[in-house]
Amino acid sequence: MTDEEKKKAMEELTEKQRRKVEEVAKAESRAPVEQHKVEEAPEETFDEEHVEHNDLSEDQEEKALKAKEEYTGKDIEILQGLEAVRQRPGMYIGTTSARGLHHLVREAVDNGIDEALAGYCKHIHVTLLPGTKNNPVNRVRIEDDGRGIPCDINAQTGLSTVETVYTVLHAGGKFNDKTGYKISGGLHGVGVKAVNALSTNVEVTIYRDGKIHRIRFQNGGKTVAPGLEIIGDCPADKTGTAVEFTPDPTIFKETVTFDFNTINTYLRQTAYLTKGLDLTLDDLRNPENPLHSHYCFEGGIKEYVAYINQEKEKIFEAIPYVVGGSKVPVGESTTTIIVECALQPTRGGILSMNSFCNNIRTTGGGTHEEGFRLAIGRELNNYFRAKEWLKDSDQNFKSEDCLEGLTVVLSIKHSNPQYEGQVKDKLGNDEVRKVVSSIVGDYLKEWLMENPKEGRLWYERVVLAFKSRRAAENARAKAQGKLSAGAGMPDKLTDCISKDPAERELFIVEGNSAGGSAIQGRDARTQAILPLRGKILNVEKAPAMRIEKNAEIYNMVTAIGAGQGENFDVSKIRYDKVIIMTDADVDGSHIRILLMTFFYRFMRPLVENGHLYIAQPPLYRVAYQGHYYYAFNDDELENIKNKLPKNARFGLQRYKGLGEMDPDQLDSTTMDKNHRRMYRVTIDDAQAANDALIDLMGENVEPRKDYITANAKFVKNLDI
Q1: Is 587 noted as a catalytic residue in this protein?
Q2: Is omega for the bond preceding 290 within 30 degrees of 0, making it cis?
Q3: Known catalytic residue: 55?
Q4: In 3D, which of 104, 383, 132 has the Cα closest to residue 247?
Q5: CA 545 – CA 467 distance, rounded (Å)
Q6: CA end-to-end span of the chain
Q7: Catalytic one of 505, 583, 691, 695
């Protein structure tokens, strides 16, 4: 653009826009250390919800949206190879945040899992490795003892099959159940190609036919010459595949550091779902403190139920377990559906449903869960009537009465699963509903007849759930009556002025001290504050009536204004954003987990529709020559220090809690819409929080030991 054109463009801008341009120009001209001043928006955010914009006139808007008049074949861009994955990584792995980074590990591990489901893999070994001298980013190596990827030439591509699998989109052995995999988690043919596309270095080693084959890729999946090569011999009976990759920091800008706990949790869950599969995880990034875990569960999902219920009060110790299969017609062919289910009732107040299809968690539920619910309601009511505990004049118990407090692991295998939405979240196969209902129902009918003592205890538990539900309905009706009569919002809620839910925000704050600072520092027009007193109730363990009567939970439910449980209506929420704001310490983390579990269990649509957030307060404040710079983690602190002059004297404060910040600091760092950082909570995040409760609150000491060992560096400032 020429100087004359720039001048003309500036004249078209409003006074407000000119000021904005001048501010940006000043910011760009500052010394590097000034970029850490809190007055400026952070360069990188996670799932950022605020976007700067300029007000355009109608002519300017039309001009901006209009494409150029000349539109020819030259304007069509064809993305070659894996470039499509690099251009739009979110379409293939969901996000480029830490969750997306760990999704790469899952994609690589799932290939070994598919081999295990096919009956060929017995062991998978995952190793976290430090970076190299040339590339300091940490690496991951995943090795399985399956059949090994074929190394012959693929007739369709003219490339070796290994190179085809790693570089050609929608190519794989999982589309055809006649010659490929009968059961598989991956069906879109992307899988490890996404790993290759989003890594700087990938090395694949195959043990097959008495030979060791190797192929390497660099910079987003470009094959390194000479391609696939034989680098040695191996025993004739040794087979398997090993892949080692280094994530690309230009793609994963939030972090490229793999988290031991995240991978450990996934591998443990996978071991439960794949009976007898041996899974090992080693973290060798810190030679002074290597971490190791190993899982192999011969009891499969029965052990999974026992693990989930370890801290809960069981109705009886037996864990009913069913496995069965059925061939059903689908179109012009037939498909085999295998159903595996374990369950156990507890005195907890909620249903703990853990459902999977081909080892992939279906957090959105689906037809397999619907079939299970039908079976439980039908068979329990039939059994209670056969025993004459329910009289002819009595109505059947509702499904929610039969399911309350039940812990369920439901796993199905399907050769052609259909999922709703782009993410594998909700199973949609209609034929699954009837199969699950029939297999689970037939087994449960027989089990109840053979176990009358447990059947009676189960009946008493359902009666208790029925009475609790009726009492809870009456309590809600009274509470609604009070609100209708003008009783208003909770006393602890400091509401905002605006009446438009689209711009209103509710901060759920840990403690009255932090709540006071938040009230003084907030934008009173759009931001409301609800302080909590200590830790809220653990809804995983508490009975329904205790949850219903808990004051902190009541205040949250009332403030949000959309009900809870099956009666929750997301269209009635009073705030577009519900923001959890807790201290950056162990207690704060525990409170976040409890809150996320509550929202996941009782206000799930709030999470599914993207209304739940976690505020990110800074950990450090650096004072230098009258300026303050804030760091949200140790890496940012080091970056700030590196920007300061050599041997500079500066002040450093580590915040132990939100209450240590004055209102202005809390506002400018954590609440101001133009400068804050917030995480939007996803269903996967909420499920992970729920799983963390099981690890940290259960009787089994090993998960807690792993968690504490892996996070020891983060608790060096723990208050005791």
Answers
A1: yes
A2: no
A3: no
A4: 104
A5: 10
A6: 62
A7: 583
